[in-house]
Write a structure and sequence with these properties.
Helices cover 36% and strands 38% of the residues. The chain has six helices and 13 strands. The protein has a six-stranded mixed beta sheet. Helix 5 packs across helix 6. The radius of gyration is 27 Å and the shape is flat. 21% of the residues are buried.
């Protein structure tokens, strides 16, 4: 009799645990934002002129969506030029460690209307909130100038961009946005982070990887040039000499 009671108690405990786990999973699912990309590989071939990748997804209800695309982090050097004796020369430089080579933000509304400043800094939303750390100690005022110049150069090249209203909703829950990558986009592994914001709080987030890679003949030449730079330089010189000799011979005959 005691054994039967213990058996029923253990069984009841398992049932209760299962109900609690199911309830927790249901609550977690209720807070999730689900998103995906139309493709997870952007192939750069000869003649690549840029491309768009569609991001689409759904939320669990009301709220706004923020999409952050971040390219591979790397060391970036910013140089300042001054005019000395009528000639523009490099007068100084600052290096930023682990700066994103590509950065883009798209939002369903202007970001300042949906995310408080403390969350902008925490989630690094917007170019003003990027964590750009110099490789060496720099005066604060000078650092601000170099930082502004760095971001300005990236924006001019199309590698840093912000799109308020770039995320559109189809109904109450479905959303989409087009992520544009220009012809000069760096190769590497990217992260696409989707945040669901409700009443000034990030209630859910999802991160999806994206790979941008060179393929084909251009990729082989690129790898050869980086692995065997000396041989690549010699071959380039020989090709230039051959082209010059051929052009000279043609013009002499003409």
């Amino acid at each position: 009799m005691i054994r039967g009671f213990l058996h029923r108690a253990v069984l009841a405990g398992f049932v209760l645990a299962g109900v609690l786990v199911a309830s927790m999973m249901q609550q977690a699912r209720a807070q999730q934002v689900v998103a995906d990309l139309s493709r997870h590989l952007v192939a750069i071939t000869t003649g690549f002129i840029g491309t768009e990748v569609l991001l689409f997804g759904a939320t669990d209800g009301d709220g706004d969506v923020v999409v952050i695309v971040r390219g591979p982090d790397r060391r970036e050097v910013v140089r300042r030029k001054d005019r000395i004796a009528g000639i523009w020369v490099n007068a100084g430089q600052v290096s930023f460690n682990a700066a994103p080579a590509f950065y883009a933000v798209a939002t369903s509304r202007p970001v300042t209307e949906i995310v408080p400043q403390r969350l902008l800094a925490r989630h690094r939303i917007g170019t003003d909130n990027l964590d750009l750390r110099p490789g060496a100690a720099v005066d604060a005022k000078l650092l601000a100038e170099y930082r502004a110049g760095f971001i300005r150069n990236k924006v001019r090249k199309g590698l840093y961009m912000e799109k308020p209203g770039g995320v559109t909703f189809l109904g109450n829950r479905l959303f989409r946005t087009n992520l544009y990558f220009p012809a000069n986009v760096p190769t590497g592994t990217y992260t696409v982070e989707v945040l669901q914001v409700r009443q000034g709080r990030v209630v859910s987030a999802q991160t999806t990887p994206l790979l941008i890679s060179k393929i084909g003949l251009g990729a082989e030449v690129y790898r050869f040039a980086h692995r065997y730079s000396a041989f690549y330089g010699i071959i380039a010189i020989l090709i230039a000499l051959a082209a010059g000799w051929t052009a000279g011979a043609v013009f002499r005959k003409a």
